[in-house]
Amino acid sequence: MQSRTARYLDLVHLGKNAWWRYALGALTIAFFWLGLGYLPLILVPEERLADPLTGFLMVNFSIFMMLAGLWLTMKLIHRRPLRTLITPEERVDWQRAAHGALPWALLAALVATAEQWLFPGRYYLSYDAHRFFQFAAAVLVLTPIQSATEELIFRGYVLQGLALLTRRPALIAAASSLLFAVPHLLNPEVSEHGMLLMTANYFTIGMVLSTVALRDGRLELAIGLHAMNNVFLALIANYEGSALMTESIFTARELDPWYSLATLALSGLAFHWWIFGRGLRAGA
Question: Measured on CA atoms in the order 22, 28, 31, 37, is the torsion positive or negative?
Fold first, then answer.
């Protein structure tokens, strides 16, 4: 019987896969994301961009453009449905995404609580009712779409594309995670904490997401995990100097990259155990 991983990777053969199609697809996605997506940064007055909510909306607009570029790439260049980046089934199982989101919410809360206990005073209450609810509405609508788009790109398009070069899941996951880390190297945290350490952080969360997608043979768990990670960061416990400042309830005075790296790895292992190691599969 074909494994879930193999069945998911084999979806790449549903479309047209000449090397030039991937080159053209990458250029198309990049043009929509970095070209069209960042036009508002030129058109919107600078004083308005200083507002955190406006900045948040602008970043998410670029992600919507990335999704549009991916859709066109799949439809016109690869000639296959966008759904085949998510699942080999006829329908996307969004309940499965909830199975990924809920355990990660618990893990994120435990990690933040432990950090405050280990480093008293690191977090402070930053809750502002008026601004929080404005942000919460935007975050709850836009962040799941942003997270799903990144998963479609890096754990869908890239993972399946790499299967044309190798069938080794470990190599596919590692290569995808490196590619996932690259655009994040533009974040301000990199200049503050160093490229190697922050690359390790981005690579680790990429590996968690990639291994979840490959092991489950579909993308919904990874989408749910990614969405919850970003929603928790945006609304519950952000940190000063974040690449995306939001009106969170609590704010850490600094990012501790070593603590982040260690807890990402441990949380990833705990998530794998919870979903796969107990003999259970979400949605099975």
Answer: negative
Amino acid identity of 230? Answer: N
Sequence-separated contacts (24+) of 160-165 with Cβ below 8 Å: 160/8, 160/9, 160/11, 160/12, 160/85, 161/12, 161/17, 161/22, 163/9, 163/10, 163/12, 164/12, 164/17
Q: Is pLDDT above 60 for 283?
A: no
Q: Which two tokens stand for residue 231?
A: 């929603």
Ramachandran category for residue 91: left, alpha or beta (phi over 0 → left; psi -120 to 50 → alpha): beta
Confidence of residue 244 (pLDDT cuts 50, 70, 90): confident
Q: How many CB atoms lie within 10 A of CB 23?
A: 11
Residue-level pLDDT at 175: 97
CA distance 228 to 222: 10
Q: Note the residue count of the chain.
A: 284
* DSSP bridge partners of 252: 123, 239
Q: Is the pTM of this model over 0.85?
A: yes
Q: Is the pLDDT confidence value at 282 over 70?
A: no
CA distance 127 to 112: 16
The gap from C-alpha 275 to its chain's centroid, in whole angstroms, comes to 19
Beta bridge partners of 250: 125, 237
Q: What angle do CA 216, 221, 224 make, to 5 degrees?
A: 170
Q: Coil, helix or strand for 251? A: strand
d(CA 236, CA 71): 32
